[in-house]
Amino acid sequence: MRYSTKSKAFRNLIAVSILALLTATTLRFMTGEIFDIQVLVVEGYHSMVDTVLSFFILVALFISRSEWSKRYPYGLYKLEDLAAFVLALIILLEFINQLHNLKGTFSTLPFIGIIVEGFSVLLLVVSAMTKLKAAKLINSPSLSADATHMWVDVTESSAVTVGLIFYRIFLSNIIYEVTMGIALLGLLLAAYEVAKDSVLDLLDLPRDPETLKRAWDITKTIASNRAEITNIKIRWAGPVTFIEVFMRIHPLITIDVASRMASRIERKLKEELAGVENVVVNIQPVKRSSLKVAVPALRPSLDSPIYRHFGKSELLLLIYIEHNEVKEFRVLKRSELLDKSLKRNEKDLLAGADLAESLYEQGVTDVIVDSIGEIAYALLLRHHILIWKAMKGSILDNINALLRGDLEPLEEPTREAPWREH
Predict the structure, then answer these.
(1) Last residue of a domain, which of 172, 202, 232?
(2) What is the tally of structural domains in the chain?
(3) What is the pLDDT at residue 140?
(4) Same structural domain for residues 26 and 131?
(5) Are 13 and 146 in contact (CB under 8 A)?
């Protein structure tokens, strides 16, 4: 089992808890039957149910954390949630069963009945405390729920003890009925507390919105502008959580880089969030809803042919595309984009580079070119701007080809830098 290094302490705590419950059950039954104290017989049935339930929860706990459960993608941790939910139902049934005791009366009440009931309360305290320590030791929600139930039993049994004492002194049922009423309300509260998280887990509903928010913050920080986190799913199961992250990567991000990013996300989520059993990062192909495409043009029109040399083009069309439709375009003049402080020979040398930087500042996502130098090519890739090889036809023909997926990415620059030509 997962808690093998703590198994000895765990077994000792559970043994003490069960032994205390069995002792309380035996004392209540024997005293109730021998001295004809019906309330102790009812309390005996109550603690007997607690004992049987503890065994049931331990079985569910053992199965959910066994090596066998690891054969399944999410294990069998939800057995613990199921055990907690069943426990809540039994507490509710116990509440209904105890309602008739609100009007209970006793013709005789031996003092030993009060002593046994009071001693049983102490035994229940021991059982609850040891069970809670065991639950914290292995982080078990089902055991924690059972411990919560035990503390409600302590309250209910204390109320019964107080009721018996006051009944023996004053021979009045009023105080007993009031204390029993408070105990029954506590029983309802326990049923709610035990069932709340188990129902959410069984239905795969968010148990803790804050954990989901933190997961979003962590993944977005790591992804930065290189990837888009589209969705995060968290499945709570027993003491653990399973996280599934859906990430869309930029087309220029390699699988190797995306894999390292996914590993960082997995490691960070396990470090920052408690109880994370497994993280799966789904890397999805990019699906861009909007594009800003820059194309060198001969004329300020979509019907214009593409100008041959990217860095020497006097005009560029900046085309806005939303959901595979051209929404609008505007004309960019080369003279407005280039740095006027450069000398003439510097302008010739760095025209393509300066143009590439200017397009990045304009928010361009793609360019379609016929010919491009290596400096401009490298700078565009550095800014994660996709470069497509132009085909014959007008600018609009090339845009439509891009939207259909017919254009090919330009794998390398078509012209070397000027200094390589000498």
Answers:
(1) 202
(2) 3
(3) 82
(4) yes
(5) no
| All residues at 6 or more sequence positions from 335 whose CB lies less than 8 Å from its CB, including other chains | 314
Residue 201 CB burial class (10 angstroms; 0-12, 13-18, ≥19): buried
* Phi, psi angle pair for 245, to nearest 5°: -110, 135
Residue matched to tokens 């959901």 = 323
Those residues of the chain that have pLDDT short of 50 are: 1-3, 341-347, 349, 419, 421-422
User: With left for phi above 0 and alpha for psi between -120 and 50, is residue 204 left, alpha or beta?
Assistant: left
Distances (CA, A) of 136 to 45, 271, 275, 419: 28, 19, 12, 70
The answer to whether 317 and 300 are in contact (CB under 8 A) is yes
- Write a three-state SS string for 331-387: EEEHHHHCCCCCCHHHHHHHHHHHHHHHHHHCCCCEEEECECEHHHHHHHHHCCCEE
Phi first, then psi: give them for residue 326, nearest 5 degrees: -75, 120
Q: What is the pTM of this model?
A: 0.59
The answer to whether residues 116 and 28 touch, using CB atoms and an 8 Å cutoff, is: yes
